[in-house]
Amino acid sequence: MRILVVGAGAIGGYFGARLLEAGRDVTFLVRERRAQKLHESGLVVKSPAGDLHFDAPPLVLAKDIDKPFDLVILSCKAYDLANAIDSFAPAVGPDTAILPLLNGMGHLDVLDARFGTAKVLGGQCVIGATLGAEGEVLHLNDMQSMTIGERAGGRSARIDTIAAQLSDARFDLQVSEDILQAMWEKWVFLATLATGTCLMRAPVGDIVSAPGGDDVLRRLFDECRGIAADNGHSPGEALVTRARGYFTDRGSLMTASMLRDLENGARIEADHIVGDLLARRKTSVDGASVLAIAFANLKAYEARRARLAG
């Protein structure tokens, strides 16, 4: 199976490197600047699960794609989705499957409109990773999982074939027979974590140690899971119990990657992770919406960033 990993950043670089390590037929679709860096330094992964270094990882530029791939793994940021689609479109043939690992749900509509629903799988990943100063992939903790599935539910020969290619690559691979539920549950957790840590500019432990901080996270989580319920994907008890444990841990240093991006003055996925969630609300909340306040905070950051950029 020929696999195209779109980008060799933190997420694509990590999972693509693990697949290369396992002997899979992987090619990274990169821009010229990233290609030059990889030609100079190779693809470097530093991870608690084992470091990797590929001197000459297989690379392709968009203009050089000359035939379809069997699987396209997409892990870009939501604000780069349109450009990413244009770059990998030549790699999509009649039998190509597209596996997006983006957060939220809005990207599915965009991909469906361009390539058709039948080509687009459901997927998500859980990993803490970023790029270092020299372009190396830094795996920050022991989380490294990917979940895939057919959006219509159940199992299929296609998903089993893809799972066989993604398995045994030193990351946790799961096939879900209800991938949309899994994606909604991750969205609820991530939106709570992102809005809470960005609004308070602090990790979870510091937030819940502050007066009223635990109530902020509780209300955010309740709002997010209420919206999921509005859309037929109420989080299961396992997720609710796990999330409540995370969001009440006074010793937790957990933050969202969105907070790291915000503190570095970088672009953030405010619209895709928070704005789109708010747009899907169907029932009102009692009192002021903390989620709406947190979203306004993120949009104010974006406005200020754009103004200072000029």
What does this molecule look like?
The protein is an alpha/beta fold and 310 residues long. It has 2 domains: 2-177, NAD(P)-binding Rossmann-like Domain (Rossmann fold, 3-Layer(aba) Sandwich), CATH 3.40.50; 182-309, N-(1-d-carboxylethyl)-l-norvaline Dehydrogenase, domain 2, CATH 1.10.1040. 46% of the residues lie in helices and 20% in strands. It has 12 helices and 10 strands. The protein has helices at residues 10-21, 32-41, 81-88, 106-115, 157-166, 179-200, 204-209, 213-230, 237-246, 257-263, 270-279, 290-309, and strands at 2-6, 25-29, 43-46, 52-54, 59-60, 69-74, 92-100, 122-131, 137-149, 172-175. The strands form 2 sheets. The protein has a 5-stranded parallel β-sheet, sandwiched between helices. α6 (179-200) packs antiparallel against α8 and α11 packs antiparallel against α12. The radius of gyration is 19 Å and the shape is globular. The model has no long low-confidence stretch (mean pLDDT 96).
* Major β-sheet strand ordering: 5-2-1-6-7
Number of helices: 12
Structural class: alpha/beta
Outline type: globular
User: In what range is the share of β-strand residues?
Assistant: 15-25%
User: What level of helicity do the residues show?
Assistant: 40-55%
Order of helices and strands: EHEHEEEEHEHEEHEHHHHHHH
The averaged pLDDT comes out at 96
CATH superfamily of the largest domain: NAD(P)-binding Rossmann-like Domain
The span between the termini is: 46 Å
Which sheet architecture does the biggest sheet show? 5 strands, parallel
Question: Could you give the count of β-strands?
Answer: 10
Which residues sit in consecutive blocks of at least 5 with pLDDT less than 50?
none
CATH topology of the largest domain: Rossmann fold
The name of the CATH architecture of the largest domain is: 3-Layer(aba) Sandwich
- The tally of domains stands at 2
